[in-house]
Every structure is written in C-alpha cells, then in structure tokens.
C-alpha cells in the first residue's frame, strides 16, 4: 500500500509534531483510500508515525481493473505534486498514555496562528523543489523563535503554524520575531492571537478559542499581527501601549462583533 506523509515540518529533522498521512490500495477494480492526522516521533531511519485519531476511509469502485489502476496512478501523482513524500514504514495505532490523556484537559493560553500570504502563487512560481526548500527554512525559522519565546507548537496547518503561550506578551514578541525572520526568505505572513480556554483532541485544537484565533488571523493583511481584546485585557498597561485600535469586526461563525488591535512597531 503506497503511503505518503505531508512534507514541510519534517524538513527541520525534529520529533514530536503533527502532520497528515495518506494511503491508497488497489484490489481488482476497487481502490481503498485512507487519510488523517498523524504524529511523528523520532527522525531519519528511526522515525515512527502513529495515527493521532482514527483515519478516514473511502472505497472507490471503478468498474474495471484498468480504470482502478489509472485512478490509483493519478491519485499518487497528485500527492507527489502536493507536498507529500513517500512513506516506507508503517503507520501504527496506539492508545493514549496517561501523560497524553492529561493533555486533553482544558487549559488557558494565548493562541497564536501564523499563515503564509499567497503561498499557492509562490509555490507555483518557484516549483516543487525550490518551494520545499523554502518551506523547510520557514518551519526552522518559526521553531527557532518559538523556542526563544517559550512557545509550544501544537499543530501545523498546511503552510501555517498554531502555537500556545502562557503569557500574551511572549506570543506577541514571537509573532514579530517570526515576521522579521521569514522576510529574509521572501515570505509575508499574517498572524492572529487570541486568549482563551481550549482542549487538544487527536492532535487538533478544539474549542471556540481556536476558531476565534483563526478568524482573527484571517482579518490580518500581509505583514500584520492582530490580537483580540481578550489578549489586550491580559497585558500590562505598558505592554498594551504597542497596540493600536483596529476597530470592531465580524468574525465568521463567531457570535457578536469583536474589537481587534494591531501590533505596532
């Protein structure tokens, strides 16, 4: 069964991150597909990949073996052209440990969402090989700043990153540092920050706080860092002085209007 792992995050040779895997298997005129979130532990030849939750499955009945074979070849070709790499080892299922189960409890944190602006156009312009190298440098730069500011990476979202911080000031400092770092790669990002409660389930953020953070980031333009009023309220008066009122906004799918603030300087 050909298997593929979404590339980008593993380029920095780290352990303990969340990505996405995709599998295909042909039996006669039927094609069996499986995909979902995975956790990657270790690096290089010692890398282990685990389903972080039950994968989704689909059966495609093509009518003839030739059509099934053509469907499979086309599906594999699409994955190779969409930032996936062949995965030789197995993808295992495992039960959460007691330590991991503790992570499912609710927590209060500042949530940071980083997203590359115009990534699809840049990838098309640079080509797969160059874009893969740029993304490797991008994730390495983001992780370097997260480590400096004591942020915790939770999940990568395509070409974006979601992380949490104990203090909002640390999240804002990290956001501005990431901006400066990725500009040397010719990339522009938009960043949103929100403070609230959330849970982690199957490697994914769950809760309204996550959705609000995503919507705040969506309101930012290239080069902007926007924060919600919840972040501002948790900051000291001196730290909040760097924030400029960005007005009231409707956040898609979120009740009421929210006042956002733009990080200056």
UniProtKB/TrEMBL annotation:
Stored PANTHER family: ADENYLATE CYCLASE, TERMINAL-DIFFERENTIATION SPECIFIC (PTHR43081:SF1), ADENYLATE CYCLASE, TERMINAL-DIFFERENTIATION SPECIFIC-RELATED (PTHR43081)
TM region positions: none
InterPro entries per record: A/G_cyclase, Adenylyl/Guanylyl_Cyclase_3/4, Nucleotide_cyclase
Domain Guanylate cyclase: 110-217
PROSITE patterns (UniProt xref): GUANYLATE_CYCLASE_2
Protein name as annotated: Adenylate/guanylate cyclase domain-containing protein
Biological process, per Gene Ontology: cyclic nucleotide biosynthetic process; intracellular signal transduction
Gene3D superfamilies according to UniProt: Nucleotide cyclase
GO molecular function terms listed in the Swiss-Prot or TrEMBL record: adenylate cyclase activity
């Amino acid at each position: 069964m050909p298997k593929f792992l979404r590339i980008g995050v593993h380029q920095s040779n780290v352990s303990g991150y969340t990505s996405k895997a995709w599998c295909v298997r042909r039996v006669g005129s039927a094609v069996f597909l499986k995909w979902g979130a995975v956790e990657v532990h270790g690096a290089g030849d010692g890398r282990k990949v685990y389903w972080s939750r039950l994968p989704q499955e689909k059966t495609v009945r093509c009518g003839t073996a030739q059509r099934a074979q053509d469907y499979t070849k086309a599906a594999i070709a699409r994955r190779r052209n969409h930032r996936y790499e062949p995965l030789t080892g197995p993808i295992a299922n495992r039960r959460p440990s007691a330590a991991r189960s503790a992570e499912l409890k609710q927590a209060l944190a500042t949530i940071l969402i980083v997203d590359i602006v115009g990534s699809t156009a840049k990838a098309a312009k640079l080509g797969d090989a160059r874009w893969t190298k740029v993304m490797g440098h991008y994730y390495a730069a983001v992780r370097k700043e997260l480590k400096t500011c004591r942020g915790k990476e939770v999940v990568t979202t395509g070409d974006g990153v979601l992380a949490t911080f104990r203090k909002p000031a640390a999240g804002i400092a990290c956001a501005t540092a990431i901006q400066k770092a990725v500009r040397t790669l010719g990339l522009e990002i938009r960043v949103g920050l929100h403070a609230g409660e959330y849970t982690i389930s199957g490697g994914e953020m769950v809760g309204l706080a996550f959705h609000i953070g995503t919507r705040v980031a969506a309101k930012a333009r290239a080069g902007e860092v926007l924060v919600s009023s919840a972040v501002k309220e948790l900051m000291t008066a001196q730290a909040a002085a760097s924030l400029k009122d960005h007005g009231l906004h409707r956040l898609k799918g979120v009740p009421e209007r929210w006042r956002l603030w733009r990080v200056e300087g």
